[in-house]
Amino acid sequence: MSPGPLLPLLLSLKVAAGATAIILPPGVALGWLLARRAVRGRSVLETLTALPLILPPTAIGYLLLRLLSRDGLLGERTLGFDPGLLLTWKAAAAASAIMALPLVARTARLAFERVDPRLEALARTLGLGPWSAFLGVTLPLARPGLLAAAILGFGRALGEFGATVIVAGNIPGRTQTLALAIFSDMQIGHDREAMVLVGITTALAFAAIWCVEALLRPGRRSSR
Amino acid sequence: MTRLQLDLTVPLDRYTLAVRWETRATFLGIFGPSGAGKTTILEAIAGLRRGASGMIRVADRLCLDSAAGVSLPPEERGIGYVPQEGLLFPHRDLLGNVLAGQRRAEDSGRRLDPEKVLRVLELGGLEHRTVETLSGGERQRVALARALCSGPRILLLDEPLAGLDLPLRRRILPFLLRVREEFALPTILVSHDPTEVRILSDEILVLAEGRSVACGPPERIFSDPRVFPMARDEGFENALRGQVTDEQDGMTRVALSSECHVHLRGEGLAPDRTVLVGVRAEDLILAIAPPRGLSAQNVLPGVIREVAEPPGSAGVDSGVPVMVELAGSGQVVLASITPRSRRELGLRPGLEVHVVFKAQACRVLAAL
């Protein structure tokens, strides 16, 4: 008996929101670093950032599982307490966050690259310190692109399957997101229910990409 | 007090910029052709150039001293920078741009009243316009207002009139002169237009390929035989200051002194208006006797002050500058004369001459 589409939908939104919250700060910071700084080992950093695009999601999931398991670097034995993440929605959020990193970091990088760096430099000549100049000029000008990065990350997390199933399992009502529910329904021959879930997922994805396209349209006000 | 002390080295793609300059003048100009390194100097002073080394002192503040390991970040240099492109903040309205440096202005005690700045620059009433609805000339003035309102010790103007068409240049130039008179703020102006630098500066550094060619006051610097050909190539115009007296038969008459009047095509200017009249050095004819029966409307008496030696290898067509002081006004003009004319007429300092040019050869550069 499948629990109906509502529970997987709500769980998917929760997992995707959690994943976005986890990955947005480091993703934006990474995007800024790649857009603005000539760091050493830059190409290695770029490649590492893009890696989850290419790696099988199950590989990421497996690495995360090892990391979080009792003997792992973030497991009970090292930390001294049980973080209790495995087989919960939090583990699903963490897995989705890693899978969303390439999209978030790349979109954030584009957002910063669209802002003329001379505007921030000019703000400095007006007496603003580096932080004030960044918060007062670069950040507001990059905001549409950063919002697009967040939406793309959210969208990517909604569709996550392979890594999630490994660290969070497929527990109806607890970790069964839309993507996992489609798989379950299909396996037990609930084609009608699967189609409903596919419809919901498509609508969400459509809305997300629509917003992103609108935010990144070249005609939007930019600094150039 | 020394306004500016520069001993600057900046490695660039094609050459290394190396400039030394120390001056007490308030309004400094840097003139040179495009690519001479003018903008680089301003960026180095503003603290926006990595790789700049040497020493920069603005007024009493040491901004850069590589030997002592001093390099102030841009926000501590007290600079009001107006870059060539204006670089207004597109996410703020006009007033938001003008007040962007307000905090430093208040902290430093060098605050200018923004309302007054907007009034002087004729931006009053536009406070809430967005940047994209402003015209090119308005943007230039907003960038200038923003710098003025940030409480700077010194103003850096990078080609403030470049990229503007002639009518607009004529509108902006008076604003720059007005800012100079109203706020008396030390200024470094950079331009490839010798006329502009001449009008707005007390002391001029001439730059070519990253090296200083010459340095001196505006009335003398362009007669320097090393500078004159550069200035002429960039469209040097003599700038004569006078008052409009009347307009007759479609001709405007401008009095430079009781003895010197300039006639030019009618501009519909009100009498008593102060104007700057521009005329090119190569459009001036020198006569050693009072000329008669000429169609040229302008015959101005004067005395030769300086005649440059023609450079050895110059062709016949390349003129040498002859500096003439016009009678009664103390204003000087440069005439570009071929070496042969110079020889045949025996032009030399102290000789009384008449400067002749057509009404059509001159134009109003700015009405103040």
Key features of this structure:
heterodimer; A: mainly alpha; 10 helices; 74% helix; globular; B: 368 residues; alpha+beta; Rossmann fold; OB fold (Dihydrolipoamide Acetyltransferase, E2P); 2 domains; five-stranded antiparallel β-sheet
Folded structure, characterized:
The complex is a heterodimer of chains A (224) and B (368). Chain A has one domain: MetI-like (MetI-like fold, Orthogonal Bundle). Helix content of chain A is 74%, strand content 0%. Chain A is built from ten helices and no strands. Chain A has helices at residues 6-36, 42-54, 57-68, 76-79, 89-113, 117-125, 130-158, 162-168, 178-187, 191-216. The N and C termini of chain A lie far apart (57 Å). Chain B has 368 residues and is an alpha+beta fold. Chain B has two domains: 4-221, P-loop containing nucleotide triphosphate hydrolases (Rossmann fold), CATH 3.40.50.300; 237-367, RNA polymerase II/Efflux pump adaptor protein, barrel-sandwich hybrid domain (OB fold (Dihydrolipoamide Acetyltransferase, E2P)), CATH 2.40.50.100. Chain B is globular. Classes of the chains: A mainly alpha (224), B alpha+beta (368). Chains A and B meet through helix 6 and helix 7 of A and strand 7 and helix 3 of B.
Helix-strand layout with pairing:
The complex is a heterodimer of chains A (224) and B (368).
Chain A lengths: L5 H31 L5 H13 L2 H12 L7 H4 L9 H25 L3 H9 L4 H29 L3 H7 L9 H10 L3 H26 L8
Chain B lengths: L3 E8 L4 E8 L3 E5 L6 H9 L6 E6 L2 E5 L4 E2 L7 E4 L11 H5 L3 H7 L5 H7 L15 H13 L5 E5 L7 H18 L3 E5 L2 H7 L2 E6 L2 E6 L1 H4 L6 H6 L3 E12 L2 E5 L5 E5 L8 E7 L4 E3 L10 E10 L12 E7 L5 E6 L1 H7 L6 E6 L4 E6 L1
Parallel strand pairs in B: 3-9, 3-10, 7-8, 8-9
Antiparallel strand pairs in B: 1-2, 1-4, 4-5, 5-6, 10-11, 12-13, 12-15, 13-14, 15-21, 16-20, 17-18, 17-20, 18-19
